[in-house]
Design a protein that fits this description.
By secondary structure, this protein is an alpha+beta fold. The protein has 22 helices and 47 strands.
Length: 1260
């Protein structure tokens, strides 16, 4: 594409001669031109050129030869060397150039040809910021004189520019790299800014091999025309990607390390550029395609990972048409085939190094010194570039417009392991096909299809549409047979799951709709916001087996199937309120659940609690409360079918095992809105074969439960472990029953209220001694029919209904320390060994009481004072109690030898009673003692009123007294040889006052040999028995007691015991009081002072005494006549006067003295007669005659003359004794009445406030 020079025309031959002389001159000039320019000038110019170049570059420049063709204006330069002679950095084999004569016409240099042959350039990096040409570049970049503002640019034209066989060698001593550009061929047809050549299109070309990869660039350009329109075709083939990535490694950040293995890049691109008018965006278009094939590279340490190996067979981009400055990209197709990825986690050492490393500092190899000048230049350049790229009139935030016709991604193997625990399942097939991707707002939605399979047989198929501009994606996906364990295993360390999944397969189907930005045109507020919608979802999880992750814990959860149908959810991407907004599930079905969990000794759920976070920050983060409200989640129907739950509670020892089997549970209308009621239907087997049912409604908040409850045969032995630390009993058997309706309400204003109506029962109860497994309490059935139990605001309203206790047994023991075994049921201290409640227990350190436990038991233990008070919050009632087939085994180990008795054949009823009604219950209970003596209790009882009320009669007949020998031996000091006991008791408690009658009949009580007992009374027991026993051998005793139950020291048993002791004491100290049943009237017979005659009252008393003695033939009576001088002296004197009066009357009337009686009216008469007849010293008058005296003076003189002495008093006492014996001898055998020596005086008389003139009795 050269332009030939215009040559001068040849003169005509005719004029040759005319011009011969001038030609000669011209020849001479030509010869001089030839000699000077062709021969002399090269030698002259070469050293000067070397010197000037050396001066300009600051490095040696040598030229081997310079040749000039003077007539063709061609210049040849050979052997150019730049740089030190030992290490030149530029050599040129030959340079040829030719000046065109057109330069004269254009008045500007016009070079017709420039050719460089075998140029060789050696560039060497010697340090981080020093190259071998750095001094030369410094000189060249020195400031040069600025051209004048008005000067025009220098015009020039250069044609046929050519570089042949060039070589560029780059050596990096710092990075130890070397690169070569070989076989460099450059051709530029011309470069000209002459006005005539500005519109001529330039077509440059470049060919080379860069590190062995061929590069070809061809183009067209108008470099000096307005717009600078250019077109470049770039073809770089077979580029070794691994080689270039290795070379680029030092320039990457320290955290990015690449170990390329292979790869080949082929490009075929066309670049169009055109500068548009001012303020318009330049046109830059890149079109064509590229291909990156057989890529393989390794990342020794990817972010958050260890080594990553990845690559693909082919990445092909076709139909590329990009306008980057206008933010437009169009691609016909993108194909990624044979993708593979293998990632491994950080090793322990690498992880520690990565975690503890400081902020990386760029290595010296990648740092470049920045001077103020370079910084300023860079800033100016950046500003200039920004001005060029983003001129006025173009919005910098204009979105990119792009489209991709088809995208196909096909992966062969994706193998990722993010933790050392386990690798993610390998994806053996990932195929993604997308058609019609377009970012235009009006473009139709793209369609896509995804197909994924992993190594365990999982398949994921999804298809849908995508709207790029609106950032919306719709998908219909189906996941089948996804093995859960491999997918959860890598997450286990980060999720801290309490259970690890051993196996299980997940399948699901759903339709998804996602929006990444707001859509104002949406039909609903939910669809207008960014988020994810799920509809028509179904999930099936089959064959799940889990195991607790904690060491040594065997908790596990298995289930045959978990099925979810009708899932519908909305997940918001709104930055202000992200998260789940709603979820609804039609059905959730759990089949074959088998859960086995353990509660640890500290109360924690061993297999359910996640491991504690390792770091303090993680623990604080996990401890933060969840303040956000729960999103609305509803489950229309939740079912658990054929499920089993087993709980091992290690908070007690031995561990308790609670189990539910064959559980069928359905919950309807479950929701996170806790105010909505749930319909619950539960049917399960508890603790073996026990049945538990519940059907009703449950509202979590405020709490409300209403429904039917059913229990049948629920084994309660599981409670044993909870009772062991506190009780000395063992539950050998117990089964609970219930059938009724439960109501529970927890109202913020009214508080908690609970009500149960129905039936409650406890059957097959067997409580045993923990030490020897002996029976303690048992029954066949205990049922409460018609029960109505209510509790509200601390108020209890309990209707126990009809109570029936059948076939029951109880073991009651008094221990050697006098305590009932019932009091030791729950008397264990913490850590103490169990104590037997059915065998004798040694007495404690304290001395045993002198009487049985009943003697010191407080009233609260013997008879409760009340069961409710006026302010009692309890209302209690029952409809009736029925007892049948009862038996109570009683043993008293307090006395030795032990005493045992059995109450058998207990039958009876107790009628209805209520705490809020005054009507008492009617009691009618019967039984037997040792299967023989009948026992009966009847009357009325009201234990539930404000004050205890009882009116109970009890009777027992024919109880063998020989069974009571241990008591008699211990407390009486005698064994019982025979006898029977019958008793009738009547206890009445009303208003806190007790009135009781204890009528006791002892028949044929016969004591045997005396027994040495330290607790035996010292009183004469045999005498007391003889005193109490009648002629038929019966002792009939009535022991009335009374008292106030409000007295904390009041004790029924204590009172009875004291009455018995007092009875014996009274038999000794006041036997006649006991004999008479009242005071001591029978203990003596009173006489008138000075008299030995029995009055009518005395005879009546002796009759009574004789009758009592006649009924007690074992007793004998001792009688002692008594005379008291203080009383009987005056009596004797008065008796003397009385005898004198009766003697006077008897003499006057001729009657016997003993038959004479003197009435009060005639006393004065006979007193005067006796005075006159008495031979005593009498007062006389002046004439010596006896004076007539008043009656009182006469009686006084007569009494004074009476012969009274000690002998008279002794005789009076003897006569009194004789009179009594004579009278009693006519009533009872005389030998049973013994007279003892009479006594004068008051010594030895009892303080009974009776007269001292008496006959005193004593019993023997």
């Amino acid at each position: 594409m050269t332009r030939p020079d215009s040559a001068p025309s040849v003169a005509p031959a005719a004029r040759w001669r005319a011009w011969l002389k001038p030609l000669a001159g011209v020849a001479a000039v030509a010869a001089a031109w030839t000699g000077g320019v062709g021969m002399w000038l090269p030698d002259w110019a070469r050293p000067r050129i070397e010197a000037a170049a050396t001066e300009a570059l600051g490095t040696p420049v040598t030229i081997a030869a310079v040749r000039i063709q003077p007539w063709t204006l061609a210049v040849e330069v050979d052997g150019v060397t730049v740089g030190p002679q030992a290490a030149p950095w530029f050599t040129l084999k030959q340079a040829q150039t030719q000046l065109s004569l057109a330069s004269v016409r254009h008045l500007a240099p016009v070079i017709s040809r420039v050719q460089l042959t075998e140029p060789m350039f050696w560039l060497e990096r010697q340090s981080a910021d020093q190259f071998n040409i750095s001094p030369v570049m410094a000189r060249l970049m020195a400031p040069s004189p600025q051209p004048k503002p008005d000067s025009e640019p220098t015009r020039f034209a250069v044609f046929n520019i050519e570089v042949r066989d060039g070589l560029l060698r780059y050596t990096d001593r710092v990075l130890k790299q070397e690169h070569r550009v070989e076989q460099l061929q450059i051709g530029v047809p011309f470069v000209s800014n002459l006005p005539s050549d500005i519109a001529v299109e330039v077509q440059p070309r470049l060919q080379a091999r860069i590190d062995g990869s061929p590069l070809k660039i061809e183009g067209k350009t108008l470099p000096f025309q307005e717009g600078h329109r250019s077109e470049v075709q770039l073809a770089w083939q077979s580029v070794d990607v691994a080689h270039w990535l290795t070379a680029a490694q030092p320039f990457l950040p320290p955290s990015v390390k690449i170990a390329p293995q292979q790869g080949q890049l082929d490009t075929n691109l066309t670049v169009h550029f055109e500068q548009r008018p001012e303020h318009a965006v330049p046109m830059l278009r890149i079109a064509g395609g590229l291909q990156l094939s057989k890529l393989g590279l390794s990342l020794p340490q990817a972010p958050g990972l260890g080594q990553v190996d990845t690559g693909w067979q082919l990445l092909k981009v076709e139909g590329l048409d990009a306008l980057p400055l206008e933010k437009q990209v169009r691609v016909a197709s993108v194909t990624l085939d044979g993708l593979h990825l293998k990632a491994r986690p950080l090793t322990v050492g690498a992880a520690a190094s990565a975690g503890g490393a400081a902020t990386p500092v760029a290595p010296a190899a990648s740092r470049v010194a920045v001077t103020p000048e370079s910084s300023t230049a860079s800033t100016a350049s950046t500003a200039s570039g920004a001005s060029d790229v983003a001129p006025e009139g173009r919005a910098s935030d204009t979105p990119w417009q792009w489209s991709v016709g088809t995208v196909r991604l096909a992966a062969q193997a994706i193998d990722v392991q993010t933790t050392s625990a386990a690798a993610w399942p390998r994806l053996d097939r990932v195929v993604l096909d997308v058609k019609g991707l377009d970012a235009s707002a009006k473009a139709p939605a793209a369609t896509w299809q995804l197909d994924v399979a992993d190594q365990h047989g999982m398949t994921l198929r999804a298809n849908g549409q995508a709207q790029v501009a609106r950032q919306q994606v719709e998908a219909k996906l189906a996941l089948d047979q996804a093995s859960v364990q491999p997918w959860l295993a890598p997450l286990a360390p980060s999720l801290s799951l309490p259970l690890s999944v051993q196996q299980g397969a997940l399948s699901l189907q759903a339709q998804l709709s996602a929006r990444l930005q707001a859509d104002p045109a949406a039909t609903s507020p939910e669809l207008a916001q960014p988020g994810l919608n799920l509809s028509g979802g179904s999930v099936r999880l089959a064959g799940v087996q889990t195991q607790a992750t904690a060491s040594g814990v065997r908790d596990q959860v298995h289930l045959s199937e978990l099925a979810v149908e009708g899932a519908d959810a909305h997940l918001s991407f709104d930055p202000a309120q992200p998260g789940l907004r709603r979820m609804s599930l039609e059905t959730v079905t759990v089949n074959g659940l088998d859960a086995r969990v353990t509660r640890g000794r500290q109360g924690q759920w061993l297999g359910m609690a996640p491991p504690r976070p390792a770091s303090a920050a993680a623990r604080r983060a996990s401890a933060k409360p969840q303040e956000a409200a729960l999103p609305p989640v509803t489950v229309k129907l939740l079912r658990c079918q054929d499920c089993r739950v087993q709980v091992t509670d290690q908070t007690v020892s031995p561990a308790a095992l609670l189990s539910l089997q064959r559980t069928d549970l359905s919950v309807a209308n479950a929701s996170t809105d806790l105010r909505q009621p749930l319909t619950v239907d539960l049917r399960t087997q508890a603790q073996g074969k026990g049945q538990v049912n519940f059907q009703g409604e449950v509202r979590p908040q405020p709490l409300s439960v209403q429904g039917k409850v059913g229990l049948a045969g629920v084994d309660l032995r599981v409670l044993q472990s909870y009772l062991d630390p506190h009780l000395n009993i063992r539950i050998a058997g117990a089964r609970a029953q219930a059938a009724g309706r439960l109501q529970l309400q927890d109202d913020a204003r009214r508080g908690l209220s609970v009500r149960y109506q129905g039936r409650v029962g406890l059957s097959d109860l067997s409580l045993q001694d923990r030490v020897n497994e002996a029976d303690f309490v048992s029954w066949r059935t205990l049922s409460l029919d018609g029960t109505d139990l209510a509790w509200a605001n601390g108020q209890v309203n309990a209707n126990l209904g009809r109570i029936a206790l059948n076939d029951f047994f109880g073991r009651v023991i008094i221990n050697p320390d006098g305590q009932l075994n019932l009091t030791t049921i729950a008397s264990r201290e913490v850590g103490a060994q169990p104590q037997s409640i059915t065998t004798p227990q040694p007495a404690g350190a304290a001395s045993a009481p002198a009487a049985p436990v009943v003697a010191s038991a407080p009233a609260s233990a013997a008879l409760p004072t009340t069961t409710a008070t006026a302010a009692s919050p309890m209302k209690l009632r029952w409809q009736g109690i029925k007892l049948s087939k009862g038996r109570i085994d009683f043993t008293d180990n307090f006395i030795q030898p032990n005493y045992s008795a059995n109450l058998t054949r207990i039958e009876g009823t107790i009628s209805a009673v209520a705490s809020d009604k005054p009507e008492p219950a009617t009691v009618d209970v019967a039984g037997a003692v040792d299967d023989g003596a009948p026992l009966k209790i009847t009357g009325q009882l009201h234990p539930l009123g404000p004050r205890l009320y009882t009116d109970i009669q009890g009777s027992a007949k024919g109880i063998e007294l020989t069974r009571l020998t241990p008591y008699a031996a211990r407390y009486a000091g005698y064994a019982i040889e025979k006898g029977s006991l019958s008793m009738i008791v009547h206890y009445k408690i009303d208003g806190g006052k007790l009135e009781a009658q204890n009528q006791i009949y002892l028949d044929q009580l016969t004591f045997g040999e005396k027994v040495d007992s330290p607790d035996a009374t010292k009183l004469p027991v045999l005498f007391a028995v003889s005193l109490l026993k009648n002629r038929h051998g019966v002792i009939d005793i009535n022991l009335p007691i009374s008292g106030s139950l409000d007295d904390p020291q009041f004790s029924v048993g204590g009172i009875i015991w004291r009455v018995i002791v007092n009875l014996i004491t009274k038999a000794v100290m006041a036997p006649f009081s006991l004999l008479s049943g009242g005071g001591d009237e029978l203990g003596f017979v009173p006489f008138a002072p000075g008299s030995a005659e029995l009055s009518e009252a005395a005879r009546a008393r002796l009759d009574t005494l004789a009758s009592k003695l006649d009924d007690r033939p074992a007793l004998k009576l001792e009688a002692t006549g008594r005379a008291d001088p203080a009383v009987d002296v005056a009596g004797l004197r008065a008796a003397h006067v009385d005898r004198l009066m009766r003697a006077a009357k008897a003499k006057a009337q001729g009657q016997p003295v003993d038959e004479v009686e003197i009435s009060p009216e005639e006393k004065s008469q006979w007193l005067t007669a006796a005075y006159k007849a008495a031979d005593i010293k009498k007062p006389r008058n002046l004439v010596g005659l006896a004076k007539t005296l008043p009656p009182a003076e006469m009686e006084a003189l007569l009494q004074a003359s009476a012969p009274v002495s000690d002998a008279a008093l002794k005789s009076l006492a003897d006569h009194r004794g004789d009179a009594v014996k004579a009278y009693l001898s006519s009533k009872i055998p005389p030998d049973r009445v013994l007279l003892t020596a009479s006594k004068v005086g008051t010594g030895g008389l009892p303080d009974d406030k009776g007269p001292s003139s008496r006959v005193q009795f004593d019993l023997k």
